[in-house]
Structures are given as structure tokens and as C-alpha cells.
């Protein structure tokens, strides 16, 4: 039989308190040290017909469908699609009761991997991909009670990511450098949003991050996302005005140079015309344009020949010369050009009246004349065609052509 003296009792209590404190400290350390990739991000489209919640759970998890807009026919089923380990596409159909459905054990046939979730209405029409679900298969092992049935392979549709419990979400989730990103707060913060932090582990294994200041509830995607990491996924974290992290609120995929690889390379302008029968223009050769595979466009007007404006008798009315260099990120897709974040701009124009000798002009913004933006002109469009060794860039307002730039590949 042992006897507890007051000293021994105090020592035992002190040891217990110390152990509890140490345990809490270690728990706090491991929680704080949890990598960002361990946090489950849900997926949804930028402009979804519907979303689902939650996006992970064991078999039997109740999934709630939230409609983003009214459908012509009521939702009827959820279609879970995945390519299983042997490369065969599979699908599992789950009926909806109202706007809820229970996830089936069949999702665990291929383990705990990701399943795309599609919505089908009562008329049998697919409403597209509305999210993704990760089954928690720890209690079922590696297989469910019934195998999935063959189905169509998932498509290339981009899904955005957000956390069920995040303080905010972002939209859109993809775009070129300088894309405006809207932040939607889900609850009031004690300190206003101040910055978005873009994080990614590069192929070299080195972690990278870039910060974008928040103005109100919006920010612009940093062009460095393309120069450092290419088109891959970046986690997006929200930082408040006190410098405190509010956690992961989404993910962003930069469009680095758009989808048209034809534009990458060095180009030299051959001519600049405006198609006007009344005041035609000619000249403009010698503009150097370099477009990188990451979408960074650099323009140099130093070797450019003047652009001459003629009258009906064919006499030169005035001539314009552009000088300087500029660079900015651009995106090119389906014949449409968009200028993103400007990296540097030092271009100017000089217009000389051939009759009086007077000159006008001044500094230009952005990429200067070729990509001058035209934001002040209603209905302005910047389009292109690229084929082999020829690049044509067209400025237009509605059906009216303003300028046509013809480049040859160098």
C-alpha cells in the first residue's frame, strides 16, 4: 500500500498541469504547421447553374444542391463521373430528393479520389458540371458494394475552387495577368481585406508567393504568376489590414499568353492602313513586336517609318511618327486580343501637318499605338488573325475599321 504525502500530491498535480500545457503547445504547433495543401478546397464554376455542399464526406453524406438560377425543368439526378485507375471512364447516378442527395458507397470503388458532379434535370437534359466530390473511404476500404457503370469521360471544363468554411471566395478563377478578381465576403471581418497572397510550390520544389493589394473588395492577378510558374494552379490567401491571414479562399489559374501559340515570337510590321476611301493612310513599317510564350508583349517603335494620311487627290496631309518602347501581358483567344497588366510604358507620338509644318502629339499609355486600348471609344474591339508567318491586328468600332496592322514573322 502506498501513502500520498502533501509534497508528492503537489508534485503529481504539477506534473499533470505541465503535461497538459505541453500537450496543448504541441497540438498548436502541429495545427499551425499544417501545410496549405491539406485544406480541402471545393470546386464550382464562375457562373454556375448550381453548386454543391459539402464537397467531401463518407458514404451517405447528404449533399445539398444550391441553384444559381431557375431551370426550365426541375433537378432530378446527380451524375458522378470519374476515370478509374485502369483508365476506364465510370459514372454513378444518384436521384435527388428535392435539392438533396446521399452519396453512395459506389464512389469508393476506386478509392478516395475526386469525382466530377454533373446535374441532370427532369427532362433528361444535362445542366453541366456543378462541382466535385471527394469520398472519404477510410471506413469502407478501397472498394464499395457495387461498381460504377461505364460512362463518358470528364470534359476539360474549368472548375473554380473554394472552401466550404472560408471567410470569402473569389471570381473569376482564371485569366491573364492583370485580371480583375472580385472578392465576396461570407462574413464580416474585424479588419478590412488588404491583400491577396498567391502561393505555389514551383517545379524546383521552391515555394513562391506574390501579393496583390485589395482595393475595396477587388484585386488584380499579378503578372508574375506567368513569369514564375506558368499556367499552373496558385492558392489564394486573404490578408487583412492588420497583416493577419484569413486562410485560403480559393485558387487561380493564370492564362499565360492565352491559348494561341501562333503569336509567340518576333514580328516586324509591314504596313499600317485604315481602309478609308476618303482619308486613306499608308506607311508604318518597322514596328518591332516580340510576344513571349508567357504572353508578355514588348513593342519597339524606334525603327518605325511615318504613317502618312492622304486626301482624295493623293496628297500627304500629315505624317505621324511613334517612338519609344513598352511591354505588357496580353491574352489572345478565338481572334480576340486583351491587354492585361502593363509592365513598362515610354512611348510618344509626333504628328506633323504637311501644309503648315505645325506639330502636335504627346505621351501614350499602355503599349502605345498598336494596342492603344481605345477604352474611351464605345464599342472598341481589338482582333487578330495569325497564320504561319503573318499576324494581322485590327482596331474597329462596330463595322468601322480604324487601323489594320500587318506583321511578318522574323
Describe this structure in words.
This protein is 8% helix and 48% strand. It is mostly beta strands and 410 residues long. The strands form 6 sheets. Strands 20, 21, 22, 23, 24, 25, 26, 27, 28, 29 and 30 form an 11-stranded antiparallel β-sheet that branches. Strands 3-9-8-5-6-10 form a 6-stranded mixed β-sheet, with no helix packed on it. Strands 13-19-18-15-16 form a 5-stranded mixed β-sheet. It is elongated. The N and C termini lie far apart (96 Å).
CATH architecture of the largest domain: Beta Barrel
Largest pleated sheet = 11 strands, antiparallel
Which residue ranges are poorly predicted, with pLDDT under 50 across at least 5 consecutive positions? 1-39, 141-157, 373-377
CATH class of the largest domain: Mainly Beta
- Principal-axis shape: elongated
- Taking the alpha carbons of the first and last residues, their distance comes to 96 Å
**Number of H- or I-type helical stretches:** 2
Derived structural class: mainly beta
Report the sheet-strand fraction: over 45%
Mean pLDDT: 78
Radius of gyration of CA atoms, rounded to a whole number: 29 Å
**How many separate domains make up the residues?**
3
Amino acid at each position: 500500500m502506498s501513502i500520498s504525502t502533501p509534497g508528492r500530491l503537489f508534485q503529481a498535480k504539477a506534473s499533470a498541469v505541465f503535461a497538459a500545457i505541453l500537450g496543448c503547445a504541441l497540438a498548436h504547433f502541429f495545427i499551425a504547421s499544417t501545410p496549405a495543401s491539406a485544406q480541402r478546397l471545393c470546386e464550382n464554376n464562375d457562373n454556375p447553374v448550381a453548386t454543391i455542399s459539402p464537397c467531401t464526406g463518407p458514404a451517405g453524406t447528404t449533399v445539398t444542391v444550391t441553384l444559381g438560377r431557375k431551370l426550365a425543368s426541375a433537378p432530378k439526378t446527380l451524375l458522378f463521373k470519374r476515370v478509374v485507375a485502369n483508365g476506364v471512364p465510370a459514372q454513378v447516378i444518384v436521384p435527388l430528393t428535392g435539392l438533396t442527395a446521399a452519396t453512395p458507397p459506389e464512389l469508393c470503388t476506386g478509392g478516395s479520389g475526386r469525382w466530377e458532379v454533373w446535374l441532370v434535370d427532369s427532362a433528361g437534359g444535362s445542366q453541366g458540371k456543378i462541382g466535385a466530390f471527394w469520398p472519404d473511404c477510410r471506413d469502407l476500404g478501397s472498394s464499395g458494394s457495387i461498381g460504377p457503370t461505364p460512362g463518358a469521360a470528364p470534359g476539360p471544363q474549368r472548375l473554380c475552387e473554394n472552401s466550404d468554411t472560408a471567410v470569402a471566395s473569389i471570381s473569376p478563377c482564371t485569366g491573364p495577368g492583370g485580371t480583375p478578381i472580385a472578392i465576396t465576403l461570407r462574413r464580416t471581418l474585424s479588419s478590412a481585406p488588404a491583400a491577396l497572397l498567391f502561393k505555389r510550390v514551383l517545379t524546383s520544389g521552391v515555394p513562391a508567393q506574390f501579393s496583390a493589394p485589395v482595393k475595396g473588395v477587388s484585386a488584380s492577378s499579378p503578372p508574375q504568376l506567368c513569369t514564375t510558374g506558368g499556367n499552373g494552379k496558385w492558392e489564394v490567401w486573404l490578408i487583412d489590414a492588420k497583416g493577419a491571414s484569413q486562410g485560403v479562399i480559393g485558387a487561380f489559374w493564370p492564362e499565360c499568353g492565352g491559348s494561341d501559340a501562333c503569336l509567340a515570337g518576333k514580328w516586324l510590321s509591314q504596313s499600317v492602313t485604315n481602309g478609308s476611301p476618303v482619308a486613306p493612310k499608308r506607311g508604318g513599317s518597322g514596328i518591332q513586336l516580340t510576344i513571349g510564350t508567357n504572353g508578355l508583349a514588348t513593342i519597339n517603335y524606334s525603327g518605325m517609318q511615318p504613317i502618312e494620311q492622304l486626301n482624295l487627290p493623293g496628297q500627304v496631309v500629315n505624317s505621324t511618327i511613334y517612338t519609344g518602347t513598352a511591354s505588357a501581358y496580353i491574352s489572345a483567344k478565338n481572334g480576340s486580343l486583351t491587354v492585361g497588366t502593363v509592365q513598362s510604358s515610354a512611348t510618344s507620338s509626333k504628328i506633323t501637318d504637311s501644309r503648315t509644318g505645325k506639330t502636335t502629339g504627346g505621351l501614350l499609355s499602355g503599349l502605345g499605338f498598336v494596342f492603344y486600348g481605345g477604352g474611351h471609344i464605345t464599342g472598341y474591339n481589338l482582333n487578330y488573325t495569325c497564320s504561319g508567318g503573318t499576324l494581322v491586328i485590327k482596331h474597329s468600332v462596330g463595322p468601322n475599321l480604324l487601323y489594320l496592322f500587318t506583321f511578318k514573322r522574323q
